[in-house]
Design a protein that fits this description.
The chain has helices at 15-28, 66-79, 94-103, 115-125, 151-164, 182-186, 194-199, 206-212, 239-246, 262-270, 282-297, 320-327, 339-348, 357-370, and strands spanning 7-11, 33-37, 56-61, 84-90, 107-111, 138-144, 170-174, 214-216, 219-222, 251-255, 273-278, 305-312, 331-336. With 398 residues, the protein is of the alpha/beta class. The chain folds into two domains: 3-133, 3-Layer(aba) Sandwich (Rossmann fold); 138-395, 3-Layer(aba) Sandwich (Rossmann fold). The strands form two sheets. The chain has an eight-stranded mixed sheet with strand order 8-9-7-10-6-11-12-13, sandwiched between helices. Strands 2-1-3-4-5 form a five-stranded parallel sheet, sandwiched between helices. Helix 11 (282-297) links the parallel strand 11 (273-278) and strand 12 (305-312). Helix 5 (151-164) packs across helix 14. The longest helix has 16 residues, at 282-297. The protein starts with 6 loop residues before the first strand and ends in a 28-residue tail after the last helix.
């Protein structure tokens, strides 16, 4: 059964109980439909619970009406044995817990609820229902060392390259609250934005999400608002939004627009890999060093950071080896300069042509990030053996 077809029933006559549990379930399993059942089903009359058996979870309140709850539990176990039933019990009531487990409940959940407790119960149930434990996606946050390094262009083409490399569900999230350019690059009009998603963060579900994102180039796109006056600049934490997205997409490319501040840090902290984009020119490299130091000071592990040199030219700026020595970090990938291919793609509102050298390298870069082996030759990077006296002092970390 596909994940989107899952049903989670919450059977309780207590409306307050449902209102407390429903948002936690929707956050933990966003692709599932959470259905409220206010009347306790009886033996021979399971009602809507009888319509779904395999792949259904039932959270059953056995303490608001103790005798009725236990009778309903017995009826479900007898008539719908494939349904995973979780008994909701009051805190510190071991006798009720033991009774529910003896009657056939697969797990128990104590009230008051917590995200961690519900998550642990669902994790255990995933052994019974593997679809609930679908692998979460990976987040790649793309950060410019400074303006005009081409980070947004790389983010767009990474999403396109990942899609070509076999990413089943891909999201490009433009979370730049000041100067988001993905709508311009893809020629889209943002009817809704990430601000709308943040406004529903506590109760996001698939239906709401599908109404907010748009489709382009074979993947979903989450855009910033058309105007920076629409609340985007007040946002400080993207983690709940990105955690939700991880449950729907196999790969998420985040275009954050800038490296600094709480909003950017939240997207960087959520990332599996942080792609810092620089050119090989001195001002950009000095800015890249500041970004690396800033992230280190804020507890971002250096091993999660991937330094990418964009618009590389052997005739301008430092060689790859000199960049690595100056910044004391490895260069993860080098992308060649190809002004014409980039401008042509912008005019067409499409990814950079795969026939161009840059397009080929972007595909290889995306495949490398995904761990997909692709035959291809990386950009040749010859270096000048001549050293520049005093150059590395510019990048002192003191």
């Amino acid at each position: 059964m596909p994940v989107g077809a899952w049903r989670i029933f919450v059977v309780t006559p207590n409306r307050k109980l449902f209102s407390e549990l429903q948002p936690i379930l929707s956050h933990q399993v966003p692709s599932a439909q959470v259905v409220e059942v206010t009347e306790l089903p009886t033996k021979g009359n399971l009602g809507v619970l009888g319509e779904f058996t395999a792949g259904t979870i039932c959270f059953l309140d056995v303490f608001s009406s103790p005798s009725g709850g236990m009778e309903t539990l017995q009826a479900i176990v007898a008539e719908a044995p494939k349904m995973a039933t979780v008994a909701i019990v009051p805190d510190r009531d071991p006798q009720r817990i033991l009774q529910a487990l003896r009657l056939g409940a697969r797990e128990f959940l104590t009230h008051p609820f917590s995200e961690d407790q519900v998550g642990m119960v669902l994790e255990k149930l995933s052994q019974f229902a593997p679809e609930l434990a679908s692998e979460q996606g990976r987040i790649f946050t793309v950060v410019p060392a400074k303006g005009a390094c081409g980070a947004s262009t790389i983010a767009y083409n990474l999403a396109a390259g990942m899609k070509r490399s076999g990413s089943k569900e891909t999201l490009l999230a433009d979370l730049d609250p000041h100067a988001g350019t993905q709508a311009f690059q893809l020629k889209l009009k943002p009817a809704f934005s990430f601000v709308d998603a943040l406004g529903h963060a506590s109760h996001l579900d698939v239906d709401i999400w599908r109404g907010i994102v748009q489709q382009a180039s074979g993947f979903d796109v989450l855009l910033p608002p058309d105007s920076i006056t629409d609340g985007a600049t007040d946002a400080t934490d993207s983690r709940m939004l990105l955690e939700f997205a991880k449950r729907l997409y196999s790969n998420i490319v985040v275009d954050i627009g800038g490296a600094y501040g709480p909003w950017a840090l939240s997207a960087v902290r959520s990332a599996d890999e942080v792609i810092v984009v620089s050119t090989n020119e001195l001002p950009a490299l000095q800015a890249a060093q500041r970004v690396l130091n800033y992230y280190e000071a804020n507890g971002i592990p250096r091993q999660r950071i991937r330094l990418v040199i964009n618009r590389f030219s052997r005739d301008v700026g430092l060689s790859k080896e000199m960049v690595e020595t100056a910044l004391q970090t490895d260069v993860y990938y080098v992308l060649p300069s190809d002004y014409e291919a980039v401008q042509r793609a912008l005019l067409d509102g499409k990814p950079i042509s795969q026939q161009s050298n840059l397009g080929k390298q972007l595909n290889l870069f995306a495949a490398k990030l995904m761990g997909v082996e692709v035959r291809g030759k990386a950009v040749e990077k010859k270096t000048n053996s001549t050293t520049l006296s005093g150059l590395f002092s510019l990048f002192s970390r003191s």
